[in-house]
Amino acid sequence: MRLSRPARGLLAAITAVVLALIYLPLLVVFVNSFSTSQNLTWPPPGFTLEWWAKAFQSDGALDAVLTSLQVALASTAVALVLGTLISLGLQRFEFFGRDAISLLVILPIALPGIVTGIALNNAFRTGLGVQLSILTLIIAHATFCIVTVFNNVIARLRRLGTSLEDASSDLGAGIWTTFRLVTFPQLRSALFAGGLLAFALSFDEIIVTTFTAGSSVKTLPLWILDNLFRPNQAPVVNVIAVVLVLVSIIPIYFAQRIAGAEKVVR
């Protein structure tokens, strides 16, 4: 379908406005991380690397980064295992309630974060009598990280079909051998992309984290929220925010590149 010149111009203008609304605030945060002003006056009166040095010397910020990495890696590992198993079960077998289970698996990422957070908080503290800790936080993050892995893997399984697996079984290979030598090599890129997206989601998640982390656990987003309005901390918070954006963009970029490369090959 070809658009008229006025329509193309209008579409380009709308796209530019939307992108500006999304990325100009991020640009302001980036510039403010180098500002000499402690109150973040605009435009910046000057530029300095002082806040970057202080950010990387802040024990609280570094501990928060380490905690976020631990939670993201652990929840991603759980999501990779469970998401793959669920995908194989739902795609390769037929049973009563399969569609309902598929909906329940996807539902956590569709629900508002505050609803998920409150539900998990009640489940841990009231239902199970468990104190909130880094373990409950990992479980909470895994609930929505599973969805990204599940979507990537089940989409790949649908495209692959079962012909190669059937051939492997006909040649005498068992289930584990078929998975290891036939299925898994074809799923590796989908697992990698799903894992990268799951890591990015977990690393910068704040709403569910607020309800499931407990007072002794401080992730990077929580550290930013706690220090945002403290005196003289705003420039350091901007530095950490820039680092958070970069850490989130990198895995998403590689996941997109992997998906694009697969489309070209196919």
Unreliable segments (pLDDT under 50, ≥5 consecutive)?
none
Number of strands: 0
Secondary-structure element order, N to C: HHHHHHHHHHH
Strand content: under 5%
Overall helicity: over 70%
* Content-based structural category: mainly alpha
Q: What is the 3D shape?
A: globular
How far apart are the first and last residues' alpha carbons, in Å?
25 Å
Tally of contiguous helical segments: 11
Gyration radius, rounded: 23 Å
Q: Characterize the largest beta sheet: strand count, sense, and whether it forms a barrel.
A: none
Mean pLDDT: 81
Explain how this protein is built.
With 266 residues, the chain is mostly helical. 78% of the residues lie in helices and 0% in strands. The chain has helices at residues 5-32, 50-57, 59-92, 98-110, 113-127, 134-160, 163-170, 175-203, 207-212, 220-227, 234-265. The longest helix is centred in the N-terminal third of the chain and has 34 residues, at 59-92. It is globular and about 75 Å long.
What's the topology here?
Layout: H1 5-32, H2 50-57, H3 59-92, H4 98-110, H5 113-127, H6 134-160, H7 163-170, H8 175-203, H9 207-212, H10 220-227, H11 234-265
Helix pairs in contact: 1-11, 2-11, 3-6, 3-8, 3-10, 4-6, 6-8, 7-8, 8-11, 10-11
What labels describe this entry?
mainly alpha
Brief summary of the model shown:
The chain is mainly alpha-helical and 266 residues long.
